[in-house]
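Appendix C reproduces, verbatim, an entry submitted by the partner laboratory led by Prof. M.T., so that reviewers can inspect both the input and the predicted structure.
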Amino acid sequence: MAKINLLPWRDERRRLRNKEAQTLLVGAALIGLLLVGAGWLQANKWIEGQTARNDYLTEEIRLADVKIAEIEDLERTRQTLLRRKEVIEQLQADRAVMVHLFDELVRRTPEGVRLDAIKQTDKILTLDGFAESNARVSEYMGLLDGSDWLSDAQLSIVEATGTDPRERFAFTLTINLKKPAGEEADGSAMPAAAAATGAAP
């Protein structure tokens, strides 16, 4: 005798399809979670790597800043030493110039003129003194202008002071210091009078 299936076959097929659909959804959800988890782990790995690189760069920048500060300190020290060297060289040169200057003043001061004070401001000399007459002052200025080390003598003050014939007129004049052509840069040449007597500058 033939068997007849009286169960509703459409409901059974629908139930199987629903079960398959649920299985697919669960599988897709699991795959999605795995992908999200893998992406999160990879992102964390990238972030950690970038953080490590940032920390390394920050440390290198700090070390570079320290070295730059040390270099700046060395440069300031270098500039200070160079300024000191220039001052010392200038003083060394001026020492010889002073020998020339006093030699010229002594040799070019005529009879009847006496210096009372000498003041130097940069390259300008101010001479205060006394003379027997105005003619002696004019003569003195002419002699100074004839020096290779002095130029442009200018009279600032001349006035009668008293009855002493040796100090009848007080004067103040200014004159410029200069180096003659061919003079060595360090001013080591000796004045004529000092060379003649064997004196050192």
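Residues 32-107 form one domain. Additional entries are available on request from the coordinating office.
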